[in-house]
Design brief:
Layout lengths: L3 H6 L1 E8 L5 H11 L24 H6 L7 E6 L2 E6 L9 H7 L4 E7 L6 H13 L3 E6 L8 H12 L2 E4 L1 E4 L7 E4 L4 E4 L12 E4 L6 H6 L1 H16 L6 H5 L3 E6 L8 H11 L6 E3 L2 E3 L7 E9 L8 E9 L1 E3 L3 E4 L4 E4 L3 E5 L2 E4 L2 E3 L3 E6 L8 E3 L12 E2 L3 E7 L5 H14 L3 E5 L7 E5 L3 H14 L3 E6 L3 E5 L16 E5 L4 E5 L2 H10 L5 E2 L1 E2 L1
Parallel strand pairs: 1-3, 1-4, 4-5, 5-11, 6-11
Antiparallel strand pairs: 2-3, 7-8, 8-9, 9-10, 12-13, 14-15, 14-23, 15-22, 16-21, 17-18, 17-23, 19-20, 19-22, 24-33, 25-27, 25-28, 26-27, 26-30, 29-31, 29-32, 30-31
Helix pairs in contact: 11-12
Bound molecules: guanosine-5',3'-tetraphosphate.
The site of guanosine-5',3'-tetraphosphate has 17 residues, from helix 2.
Length: 529
Amino acid sequence: MKDIAQEINRRRTFAIISHPDAGKTTLTEKLLLYGGAIQQAGIVKGKKGARAAVSDWMEIEKQRGISVTSSVLQFRYGGYCINILDTPGHQDFSEDTYRTLMAADSAVMVIDAAKGVEAQTKKLFKVCTMRGIPIFTFINKMDRDARSPFDLLEEIEQVLGIETYPMNWPIGSGKDFKGVYDRAAKEILAFESVGKVGTKQAAKIEAHLGDAGLDGLLGAELHAALTDDIELLDGAAYEFDKDKVDAGKLTPVFFGSALTNFGVEPFLADFLRLSLPPAPRNSDHGPIAPTGDDFSAFIFKIQANMNKAHRDRIAFARICSGRFERGMEVTHVQGGKKIKLAQSTQMMASERETVDEAFAGDIIGLFDPGIFSIGDTLTTAKEPFRYEGIPTFAPEHFARISQVDTMKRKQFVKGMEQIAQEGAIQIFKELGGGMEEVIVGVVGVLQFEVLEYRLKNEYNVDIRRQNLGYSSIRWIDNEDIDPKTLNLTSDTKRVEDFKGRRLLLFTSDWNITWALEHNPGLSLSEVGR
Ligand code: G4P
């Protein structure tokens, strides 16, 4: 039998966060190539319509050619067992993207060197900071004209509020890109253009800055600039502080080019060396050690309707401690029942395969006959405990939804409630109101289409949708405040969610500020707990 502690300690479970087009897919592919999990690029997201379906379970995905739900990719490299949690980012950005971050132990932030910190990166970063997980930065596309590396670091520090430590330093960019200088090894990794999707190793050159020979390789100008930059960096205040990295207060930064496969392998090696194996997670019985004897996991995502003939769902569970074995009996804590985990799957690139064994750090998909909710705990512990719940993240798009045929009221209510329970949408109603008027909130607009499609196909209900002009929602933290007494702008709406929590819908950030200024003591949250 495998040594459980050893298995767990070699696990690295992380998510890649970025704004669309920064190069997340390209980097993922290169990582998988190193791990030997795929043999050629283009498997993760075949470009230009040739998409290999990681999860082609829903018609809408096929029609639109995009993946609505995220998956998990596992591969081995250098003795490590690596789980990459895919965080959907384009039109398929949804609350699942945020929730996936709750299952990660660290994050890799990919930034386009010409664009810097972009909107979606900011949102995802915020969730990572909330959890205090380590964040590693890969500044991508150095083979194209890039902004000054100093500017990029300053932007990361200013906009995201995290200290930076460049592990390597770029020498030129775009047509003049010569490679990177590895600060610890004091070596130059020379960039050789080897075609668009080359997999050739870059040349390592042991070089002392100031050596005359470098003028020939880099050109006198870039050599002088590099010498100056490194002097400046080495003299700077920020030291490399591993404790700060572990706490998510300092991000190690790597420059490279995923497309040309430049700087990816050194990045992977350093990432694996510096990132953490699964750490203890908080529960209502205190922190639970991953290497403890008992198996435990929590559900962070529910994917509906894998099989159209049945209303089956797959619940994705992040294992937090111990060892999973197919067929094992566990307590489903929230359901108060013992259940047998007989059907379990794991996503591997484009296939779904059955898993017989898994360890803390791994993600497994469990057959769900409709009993699981997001945040539920499963464990074999004699004294069952609950992991800290997964917060509800603020949706950004809102619409009023009603059924076309009033005779189908029952199906409408049932469908809406079930889809909301899976976490695909959030539903809000008037304070003290019923389901007569429902406001649906989603993180990404595609979820509206998913809702419409599923109500039609699974519940045979047509809906009417009226988009609403709200852009933000906030949970009211103060238990003792009656929302009706709040002094608000006339376009701010008071609602409640299905847990009875009270919220405010705003048409602009300006209105949020207004509400806070005109209601002393009012406390608003971007996440619902
Ligand atoms: P995403 O998952 O973050 O959305 O980004 P993705 O990897 O799909 O990359 C977005 C575009 O940027 C792709 O071009 C990709 O080839 C390109 N790209 C990624 N990394 C680099 C890099 O290091 N250097 C350069 N020059 N380009 C990079 P596309 O035109 O949208 O797709 P394709 O037709 O080239 O495949």
